């Protein structure tokens, strides 16, 4: 392998890491139970209607079962969504994985991040960029998450930093909206 593979000693150690997931009140075992129970009730009801001569009702009971299966599959797919928030000495990284498995990441300098607790999510912002996390959390959980994240950022800001962290804490021109340019004189 020709690429550089940093060892764990070279990677910044996370001082805070949180995985935010929606409530999973019905797992795979629960979904199977609901399907078996609904299927059994539909089968018994369908058998009763068929014996009574109302056989067209069986089609509607089957349609109910198909809708229930589709709803439970959509629930299982939505439960694959999650977000992670990680703070190291040089960056705050937010990673969001959607139900289809697509990954999006945002990186912020932890020295400049502002935290705002909103009605539906916690907003993290710095230098004109903003991302909302924790929409799946209850209001109390959002406040607790924001408080824990703020404490981790405060610890990182007050701890003696290494030279690498201090260099990363200085705003770069691209971070403050200016276009980087070369200051050397043009050749004659």
3D architecture notes:
With 188 residues, the chain is of the alpha+beta class. The protein folds into two domains: 95 residues, PH-domain like, CATH 2.30.29; 51 residues. Helix content is 39%, strand content 20%. It starts with 15 loop residues before the first strand and ends in a 19-residue tail after the last helix.
Could you provide a short overview of the structure?
This protein has 188 residues and is of the alpha+beta class. The chain has helices at 28-51, 56-78, 139-158, 163-169; strands at 16-20, 82-87, 92-97, 103-108, 114-117, 122-126, 129-133.
Determine the fraction of residues in helical runs and give it as a percent range: 25-40%
Strand content: 15-25%
Average predicted local confidence, pLDDT: 80
Order of helices and strands: EHHEEEEEEHH
What count of domains describes the coordinates? 2
Quaternary state of the chains: single chain
| Through-space gap between termini | 44 Å
Question: What descriptive keywords fit this protein?
Answer:
four-stranded antiparallel β-sheet; 2 domains; 4 helices; PH-domain like; disordered N terminus; single chain; 7 strands; alpha+beta; 188 residues
Per-chain topology:
Elements: E1 16-20, H1 28-51, H2 56-78, E2 82-87, E3 92-97, E4 103-108, E5 114-117, E6 122-126, E7 129-133, H3 139-158, H4 163-169
Antiparallel strand pairs: 1-2, 2-3, 3-4, 5-6, 6-7
Helix pairs in contact: 1-2
């Amino acid at each position: 392998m020709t690429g550089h593979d940093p060892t764990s000693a070279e990677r910044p150690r996370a001082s805070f890491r949180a995985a935010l997931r929606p409530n999973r009140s019905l797992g795979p075992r629960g979904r199977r139970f609901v399907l078996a129970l609904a299927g059994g009730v539909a089968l018994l009801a369908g058998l009763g209607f068929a014996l009574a001569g109302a056989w067209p009702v069986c089609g509607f009971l089957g349609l109910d079962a198909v809708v229930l299966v589709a709803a439970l599959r959509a629930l299982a797919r939505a439960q694959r969504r999650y977000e992670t928030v990680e703070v190291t000495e040089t960056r705050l990284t937010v990673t969001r994985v959607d139900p289809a498995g697509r990954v999006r990441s945002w990186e912020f300098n932890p020295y400049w991040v502002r935290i705002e607790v909103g009605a539906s999510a916690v907003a993290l912002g710095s230098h004109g960029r903003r991302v909302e996390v924790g929409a799946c959390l209850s209001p109390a959980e959002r406040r607790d998450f924001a408080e824990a994240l703020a404490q981790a950022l405060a610890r990182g800001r007050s701890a003696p930093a290494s030279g690498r962290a201090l260099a990363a804490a200085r705003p770069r021109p691209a971070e403050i909206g200016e276009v980087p340019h070369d200051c050397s004189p043009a050749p004659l």
